[in-house]
UniProtKB/TrEMBL annotation:
Residues 1-97 form the XPG N-terminal domain. It comes from Riccia fluitans. Residues 635-644 have a biased composition (Basic residues). Residues 489-512, 576-654 are annotated as: Disordered. This is Flap endonuclease GEN-like 1.
Length: 654
């Protein structure tokens, strides 16, 4: 909950929206209870076995391996007795129990100060899982957001992940209110607030926020001061500096100061300040009356008028007209002072009539830090360490709790192993080990090559191929990839989980077995620069070869489409001599439609044999080389030029 009555709505203009890449390499203090409550809300009407363990497992793998963040989990300690009222409301909302029974239950000696037994059991199971995953877990003495804020304030982490605004009151520098690891709506993935933005834009520092929590309500005092909202409280806080705001609240609560002591009213001298009343024109609103303005005109209207023909009448005043004469200015100032004094009187009355305000125990809870000395800082710093997960113990734990097969656990935990392995390689000095002496992943696997660049949700990744470097260690068999298709792994194994992690992909080779993983490009560049250089060289060679082939194809195509040089000259037609026996003749152009005397016409052997053959086969129709005479009275049909030329030639030969 945190500060109530619209605190986040007032802070909304100061929110910063980032994507998940903003969290790469940052240490995050996470309130573990927030994750579990979020999971219970999302799966309220569904039955899933141990959803808190599934959610924690998949979120840790994605947050570390895919996002590149380093989480530090914080567990709640004993809740303060002041939080009794808020706890009773939460129990009533979730369990729908009678308020009187809840109050008796929560105030009993056995349950006083303790939490929900089932919830505590879920938290302890998640703590065991996080320890097996190699994540640091810290236990707070009181509230988890208090320790998260202290870690952030002392520089041990970069931000706090909690929707509770109390983290800002406890002194956190950066609070991540919303973190969407599965962003299906394509909206902002990280919503964060920074204390420096609150100070620069609104003038709010830590004690201002403590006073705001006292006025509008918080987890320890849900009601706050009745009738005081967030807007009124912020207006009040801006009138005082950080060093005196809490003292003023104490004085108001005890009734030691009145409104006259707090509000500075400017005293107006009777001789110079109290001006006599001035009449104003009902038409234009300027000093004077309508009759005077009608007879002699209004000086204010004449000075502001642009129409030289209208110098005797005054201009009608508009809707939002405000007179700027000294009397009207002083009158408006007195009205503002009166409203301000009334507001101060009301809010001071509300504060003074609130029993026990301000609660010193609440102030102490907000201002007391769980990291008080330098020894505490060094002790927490030594605990915040990340290590490689324990494979065998993790397999046993998840098999007992979630009924997962060991092979499935290895497939899902592999991205975490490869991330820690590549991070370790990147941190090693460049002159230290050679390729043959570098440490191996799980003591047996080493990166072989980079297949290609993969784009996942807009982020480029290297698809890295791993190969077994130790005899007897078959990567495909150890991860359960042999004899199992990718479709089956994706549908049957990962399809029923709350949050799906991309399964491992296998690829068989002649001299061994390989599997591939998708890794961040920057991490791979720092850990395996030789593989990156090899990939760049191969891509340059492919691009160069492709460019040569493309250039050659373009040249050949242009040669094929080039026209022959003969097409640019006129073509001469063939001719033949058609002279008669007298030696005189004419020249005739040859064309495909010009018949040859050697093949067609009377006297040619080919024509006569063709006519004889046609007449012998046809009993009724008689064919002849001579065209029949046209029938008288019959319109002559138009024939084409080739046909007419042929007919005229045949007739000339007969």
């Amino acid at each position: 909950m945190g500060i109530g009555k619209g605190f986040w709505d007032e802070m909304r203009p100061l929110a910063r929206m980032e994507d998940l890449s903003f969290l790469r390499g940052k240490k995050l203090a996470i309130d573990l209870s927030y994750w579990l409550v979020q999971q219970q809300t999302a799966l309220k009407d569904q039955y899933v076995r141990k959803p808190h363990l599934r959610l924690t497992f998949y979120r840790v793998v994605k947050l570390v391996a895919k996002v590149g963040a380093l989480p530090v989990f914080v567990v709640d300690g004993e809740p303060p007795a002041l939080k009794h009222g808020v706890r009773m409301k939460r129990f009533k909302r979730f369990a729908d129990m009678d308020t009187s029974l809840l109050s008796e239950f929560l105030t009993s000696e056995e349950t006083c100060g303790s939490r929900n037994g089932m919830f505590e059991e879920n938290v302890e199971e998640c703590v065991t899982l996080l320890d097996l995953l190699g994540m640091p877990v810290l236990r707070a003495q009181g509230e988890a957001e208090s320790l998260c804020a202290a870690l952030n304030r002392e520089g041990l982490v970069d931000a706090c992940v909690s929707p509770d605004s109390d983290a800002l009151v406890h002194g956190a520098k950066c609070v991540i209110k919303s973190l969407q690891l599965e962003n299906k709506n394509k909206g902002p993935e990280v919503e964060l607030y920074r204390a420096v933005d609150l100070e620069m834009s609104m003038g709010l520092r830590r004690k201002h926020l403590v006073a705001l929590a006292l006025l509008v309500g918080c987890d320890y005092s849900p009601e706050g001061v009745p009738g005081v909202g967030c807007t009124s409280a912020l207006r009040l806080l801006k009138c005082f500096v950080e060093s005196e705001i809490l003292d003023r609240l104490r004085a108001w609560g005890r009734g030691e100061l009145s409104v006259q002591d707090e509000v500075e009213v400017e005293a107006v001298d009777n001789a110079a300040g109290n001006l006599s009343s001035v009449t104003h024109c009902s038409k234009c609103g300027h000093p004077g009356n309508k009759k005077e303005h009608t007879n002699s005109g209004c000086r204010e209207c004449i000075s502001s008028s642009t129409d030289v023909c209208d110098l005797t009448d005054c201009t009608p005043k508009h809707k939002d007209f405000r007179c700027s004469c000294p009397f009207c200015l002083q009158k408006a100032k007195k009205k503002r002072e009166k409203r301000s004094n009334e507001w101060w009187a009301k809010i001071c009355h509300k504060i003074s009539t609130t029993p026990g305000f301000p609660d010193e125990e609440i102030i102490s809870l907000f201002l007391t830090s769980e990291i008080a000395t330098g020894e505490d800082i060094s002790s927490y710093s030594s605990v915040i360490k990340w290590r490689v997960p324990s494979v065998e113990q993790l397999e046993i734990f998840l098999q007992n709790q979630l009924f997962w097969e060991p092979i499935y656990v290895r497939q899902k935990i592999l991205p975490l192993f490869t991330h820690f392995y590549l991070t370790e390689l990147a941190a090693m000095p460049t002159s230290a080990p050679t390729c043959n002496s570098k440490p191996l992943l799980l003591g047996a696997y080493a990166p072989l090559c980079i297949q290609r660049i993969k784009i996942e949700q807009g982020e480029p990744l290297y698809r890295l191929t791993w190969k077994s470097m130790k005899e007897g260690m078959d990567g495909q068999q150890w991860f359960g990839l042999k004899g199992e298709s990718k479709r089956r792994r994706t549908g049957e194994v990962a399809g029923n989980d709350l949050e799906e992690v991309e399964p491992v992909e296998g690829e068989a080779e002649e001299n061994g077995s390989c599997f591939t993983t998708d890794e961040n490009m920057e991490v791979v560049k720092a850990a395996c620069p030789d593989l990156v250089a090899r990939l760049d060289t191969e891509q340059e060679e492919k691009h160069a070869a492709r460019a040569r082939v493309t250039k050659k194809k373009k040249v050949d195509t242009s040669l094929e489409k080039q026209s022959s040089i003969l097409s640019f000259f006129k073509h001469e037609k063939q001719v033949r001599n058609t002279g008669t026996g007298c030696g005189k003749g004419s020249v005739e152009e040859l064309s495909p439609h010009t018949p040859d005397k050697r093949l067609v016409g009377p006297g040619s052997k080919g024509s006569e044999s063709l006519i004889t053959s046609l007449n012998s086969k046809s009993g009724t129709t008689k064919f002849s080389l001579v065209s029949p005479a046209p029938i008288p009275g019959t319109p002559r049909r138009k024939v084409s030029k080739p046909v007419a030329r042929r007919l005229s030639f045949e007739q000339s030969q007969t």
